[in-house]
Every structure is written in structure tokens, then in C-alpha cells.
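Archive transcription. Copying these from loose printouts into the bound notebook so they stop getting lost. Printout 1 of 2:
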Amino acid sequence: MKLNVIKNRFIYLSISGMLFIASLIIMIFWNLNLWIDMTWWTSSEYTYSKLDIEKVKTEINNSSKELKYNEKEVINSTNAYKISGQNSLTIVVGFDSSIDEKKLSELKEDFRNKTLKILENNDSTVRESSYTNIWKSFWDYIKDTAVITLIIAIICITLYVAWTFSWVVSWISSYSFAAIVVITLFHDVLISSGLYIFASNFFPEFKIDTFFITALLTILGYSINDTIVIFDRIRSNLQEWARKKEKLNTVINKSIWETLRRSIFTSLTLLFVLTTTFFWGPGSISGFVLVMIFGTLVGTYSSIFIASPLLYEMNKNKKLEILKKKVYNPEDKIVV
């Protein structure tokens, strides 16, 4: 039995609507598990003669948990690593950006002094060789750049779709294809973000960082690719079936069925690679891969069950006719 997406479209749209609203609530009201490059952070570099790095890391992590303001932990994350081939240790600390700047400045200095004392207790020759203090302006720059990049990418994709799907059939504007692309892209990005933020609140290792932004941009590219394949088949069938006076829902259902296997197999192949990388790949990119897994699932769903039903809803009352292009007559002359 063939899949009748248009008949059950309100079920699929309702599922997406609930996920969309839930994701929006999560993004607005839940705490964001930000990584160092998305917070107000400090970076200190120390030289030493002999230091037990693992012991120092444990002591610094314990010290970071003790630093509190209004009974709330001030430090989001700490990362200590040794520079290969050198007796040099770098400690990067991310702080809660919701704290007043003046008070946060005092807390940063307090933790800086405690860290130096811990290191000196383990090795009296330790010296702080450099100290970098990043404030709100840097985080705002990263956030604004990410938002602008996403918006520009969506605008460019929309303009491309509007141009590509011009000259389909009468009364179905190419801008309806473009408008649906904008809706589905926002849908995919928002729900993927909501799912990731939901997961990050239970698994602290999944941070929101620059890899997270990169994953969202990658999702845009994958999602639009799948949607375009289905839309292209709908366009081909519209031009053919308009001559037969077929109904729009029949054309769309047939087009979905013809591309369904391709969409599912492509997504399963990608999911196999992503899942393998998630469990056995480098831990540093696990967050990126998890966002991609969510994006692949949501993008495949929206391409099949959201984009096509929306196209039907926007054009269901329109009569399908072959678009007639004006034929140039060489006999026509311009009289001056």
C-alpha cells in the first residue's frame, strides 16, 4: 500500500508543531551548557620544572566546584592540557556569563590566585607566563556571527530555490517552493538545536560550541538537498500530469512515493556513518556528530512529511495548467 502523505498531513504537521514549540521553550528557558569558546573565559599558561599533571587537574577541578556565587557554581568548565615537548601547562576556564561583570571580575581573580597556589604547592618553581581574560564582547561577537551566517545561508538557499523552480505550471508560483524551504530549514535547525540542548542537560559532555554552529550549517545543506530532490520530482510530474488534469494531491503523493526509497536509503547511509563516528570516533567531535544525527532525522522527516504537505496546502485550490510561454514572432517589427 502506497504512503498517502497528503491524506494524513495534519498528523505529521501536528507532530512537527509540538516538537517546534517544545524546542523553542527549551532554547528560551533551559540553561545552555556552553563550552569555553561560548562563555566569558580565562586562559592561563604556566611554566614548571616537575609537575604531576593528572593530580593537578583533579585539584583544580575540585577547586572550581567550590567557587560559588549565591549558592550557584560560577565555573562552567575547566580544561587543562600540557603543551607537547615543553614544561608548560595551559588552563582554560569558562565562567557563568549571567553574573554581574564587576563581581565576576573578582571571582576570576580569586580563582586565578587559587590555581596558582595549587600549582605552587605541587611545584615551587611554577610561574604564570601569560594570562588572557575574555569578556562579554567576544561571546557577543561569536553569537552574532553565528546568527548572521545562518540567516545569510537561508536567504541564499531561498533565492536559489525561487529561481530554480520558476516556470513550473500556471498558478503555482516558484515563491511557494521558496517559502516552504525557509519554513522547513527553520524547522530543522530549531528542532535539532532543541533536541541537542535537551540532551546536553542530562549529559554535560555535550557542549554548545563552535562545532555546534558548524553542525547547524551542515544540516542546512543536507536538509535542502533532500527537499530539492522531492520538489524536483513534483515539478516534473506537475508538468506531465497537468495535461491529464490530475489533482494536485495525486501528483504530490506519487512524487513522494517515487523518491521515498532514495531519501530513506541516503539518510540511513549517513546515519550509519554518524553513529559509528559517535561511538568510536574522537570524543572532541561527539557533540558535532550528535547534532548531525538529530539534523539528519529531522531533515529527512521534514522533506517527506512537512515540505510536500505545505506545498499542497498553499496550492490546493489552484487549477493546474501548463505554463504557456510567449512565443517570439520574427515577423513582428518595432515601428519607430
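Printout 2 of 2:
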Amino acid sequence: MNEAAYREAEAELWASCGLHPAEQVIPLPRIGSRVRVQEIGDGDPVLFIHGGPNAGSTWAPILPHFPGFRCLLVDRPGTGLSEPLPLGPDTVVEFAKRFVGDVLDGLGIDAAHVVASSLGGHLALRSAAAEPHRFRRMVQMACPALVPGDRLPPFMKLMRIGLVRRFLDLLPPNDRANRSILRQIGHGASLDAGRIPQGFLDWYLSLARHTDTMRNDGDMIGWLTRPGTMSRVRLTEELLATVKTPTLFIWGSDDSFSAAKTSPGSSCRRCPTPGW
């Protein structure tokens, strides 16, 4: 961990967006970990929960479009500048159920809107099923992790193999590998068109080089996607049907995690709850 180098790259990303967040480290009382939360703006609170391997500042480029909201960006445990969380089937399920509520408790907030992606989407859905009173509205950006019918891109399949993960940990992170990850999760067209800012790419490389995110999230992904574990932690259609939070799905046609390809304007065939 080289926190100073990471903070420098992160500050440059925020500056490129014309924003300068405040930050705090909060306890997660029931989970027993501490996480960093960055904050921008005033108004109704919106909690942003990122996927993996990633960290809270991944949302920075879209935040200039959120005037009138108090935007709260959490680094999930083990990512960015947050403490890691021990792995285990019961640990992960209970952590997911409590995550949103614990973050809001740490911030002194009763309820918030939630914007979540991928693994963050999994946490948000499980939290919404367990503690619906903490949610106002929810946006799920792309396919939530471990829902019925999802699939894994190649680099995540490799994460299932412990020796491969340890070997990858020994390799120095580089821009080419990071761009490959972005392509595998569906951002190839955006890369080719230059729609992903250089400040974001520099920050993402620093995240890999200067924090423990890739190792921690690699272990999390590898552990969660093992066949024996997936069956225990996967979101079932029965559980998803209990989520009553008004939810908008923004699901791109290039989403590599979704086995259900949809055309623009069509409904998502994998959403089991009417009205989502």
C-alpha cells in the first residue's frame, strides 16, 4: 500500500471532474470493519456502491450530473482505503444483508437512495430484501453479481484458481492489463471511442499499483465464484421477489455479465419482479 501515491492519482481524477470531496472513515457496527466514505454535494442522500475490482472514486466522472444530491461514495471493505473483511459463506451473506444499513448508521442517516453496480448491486439487493426501510429508491447499473442467469468474463473465471491469483499478484500492474479488464466487462467500445477519461485510467492504474484492492477483491471474486460457494450466496428469484424498493435497471447491451442480451428500449428478461 502506497497511500500517498494513490491519493495523488485520486485527487487528479477528482480535479479533472471539477470536484473536491470531503471524506471520513466510519465504523460498520454490526459487521466489525471500518470503511472510507467520500462526500460531494448537499440534498437528499445517495449512497453509491461500486463493483469489483474497483473503489468508490470510480463514480467521480458522473457526479457533476448530480446537482442537488448529497452523494456518498463508499470504498467497500478491502478496496481503496477501507479495511478488509474476512471471507466465509455466513460472513458474506450477513455482511451483504447489513451493509447498506451499517454504512447509513455510520453516517447518521435513516434512509437513502442507492446507486449500485455489479458486486455492489448484489449487496444492495440483499440489503434491500433484509432492511427495506433503509432504502428510498434504487438504481442498479448493469448486471448485479450472482443473480439467476449471469455469467463471468474470462479474467474472473481465472480468479477461481488460487495459484493463478497468487501469480497475478506478483505481476506489476500495467495499463494494458487494466484496459483488458475494462474490455472484458463491456467497456471496449467506450475505450475505442475515447469516452473514458485519461484521468480515470490513471486513477484505475494507481488503484491496482498502490492499494490492496486487486488482491482483496481478487480473493473475494475467486471465493464467491467457486461452484460450492456460488450456490450458497447466489441471489434467488424468491429473494429478489421480496425486494419492494422502486428500482431502475440501467443495463447496457454490451454487459458481459448478462446472458440475456436486450435491444435498446426492450425490457430485461432476467428481472424476476414485475415492475422493476
